[in-house]
Amino acid sequence: MAPSINKKRTISQANAPSLPIVRPAFPLPWISQAPLHHRSLPLRSEEFLKLAKKFNGTDQAGPDDEEDMATTTNRMPLIITEEEEEELAKHTPAGYEGTLAPAIDLVDMVLLQERFKNYPRLLQSVAFGNLAFDRNNDAVLAAILDKLWDQAANQPGIYHQQLVNDDGYSPTVEELYEISKYMLGYVKGYNHELCGEIKPGTFNAVDAQLANTIDNFKADKYKVQLKLSAREPASYRAYMWSDYYVEHAKKPGEYEAHEMYRAPQPQLAKLATTGIAKGKASSSKKLRVWRLVPDRIKRTITFVNALQKRLNEVLKADWNKPLEFPLVDVGYSNECIPRLREQASHHYSNYLMALTETLCAILPTTLQEWSSNGPYHIEQAVIYLVYKPEQSEISEIGWTKLADGYIHNGGGFSHYPAGLSNASASKTSVLIWSAAMMYVVKESAMKLNAQAEIDSEQAKTDAVTKQLEELLLEEEAVDKERDEARTALFTLCEKMSPETEMGTQFALALELTKETDRTIEKIAVYEKEFFREFELRNALELKIEKFQSDAQEVSKYHHRFMRTMHDIREFDKEGEGSGSKDLVDEIEVVEDEEVEAEEMDGVE
């Protein structure tokens, strides 16, 4: 397969490589039987399936009977050496048992600053790579996606869809360009005023027969009538029409050209007359009507124009190569698995994606001149588990932007703003949200991510502590070396003859050093004395402050006492109290004692 081509992205993403292929030392087989719903996952290689059969103890088989892996009971004894088993244990995740091995989770840590409860290699693949291709070549990523798929049966999530072949490659630029022209031809059959935007020469004609073949591609039981595909003036196109419900039936002549009161499939005619609205018990009296949706025409034209603009930026020499980033669709659902089954059946699905997939399947079989690297299909995966109602909107917005999935730049099939159709989140049971939160805490990467962050911070702390210890050791070594040098100098000075000039200089240096040491010791003694005196002074100041505070209290009470005496004397002068004189005498005695006590305190 030729190398793929980068599509137009932002400057920061322009040179971002796709996820490198990870080739484990031992190919990873299934460690439990693959469930039936994994039929929507990519088919593994023949070698992979044989290894899976060998490990699971089943008869060997080719890739065509992958479905039998889930139902076969014909087992044979394992033929696997101890060395193979040990090597297998090193690389095999436990994702099929419900939990990934800790070593794998530790490798696939989420971006810590964002605290996404997911895996970096998954984020990298969705944002900068090709998820379908990467999962075929990265066993760990495949195990992560399988784990998310299994858990999505129990909680809401974000799903991811890509248009690829079995190898995970997008259609080539040339194929997509021709498909886009056939999409315009399919829309042009309406003869609707909006189709005037489609200029001659920009589309490939789609006659009624081809349109009918396209509309019946997924119609296993109920077929669209050919006469409706050729209907004038507004031909029926299944991917551009939709059903709705009305309160009262119109007369046949009152319906407009782009409306039908009968089902496009004869087998569904009873549904139109009985008027049973799916999922609406209160709508039993409403009538079902089919009509053209003008917004679908507008969005289809917008999608084709943006896609062709993107494709025209590729060199003509590379038009036979697939895009590195396939067309993608991202969405939220409180039940991802049933929703993806609806998408795969083209029932209440993304009509742009469904029409593109249908054209990829129909054109190679109906046009002899068509050459294709297909067959192509919609590859489905669950990429994120939502565990809070308020996460539904922001998660869908974030993942759609990461995948570059909007129609306006030709990146994908998402035509409706993400985060605006998440009403089902508020209707989800509290028990489901509680269980979802418990699962994310216990089973997802969040716990290990938090522990990894703690370990990272602890490692930084340990590194700083180690550096401090090394600095202390270096300081001790320097002090020791200095002391040894001083001792050696003293010894040398004592041995040298004082008569020589150098000996005299060494003797002076020795005396100076000793005098310096004595001075340092005196300074240390003075410092100790100073600090002791300083502490005593502080203690004395505290005592003085307490004494002053007590004196203020005594003065306050003395003032109150003197005022009381004054009041008593005034009262006595008026002659209104016989016992007042005795009370005054007693108070004067107490006052004399307090004055003597104050004088004694002053003497002290």
UniProtKB/TrEMBL annotation:
Domain of life, per lineage: Eukaryota
Keywords per UniProt: Coiled coil
Coiled coil stretches, renumbered: 454-488
Protein name according to UniProt: Uncharacterized protein
Species the sequence originates in: Pyrenophora tritici-repentis (strain Pt-1C-BFP) (Wheat tan spot fungus)
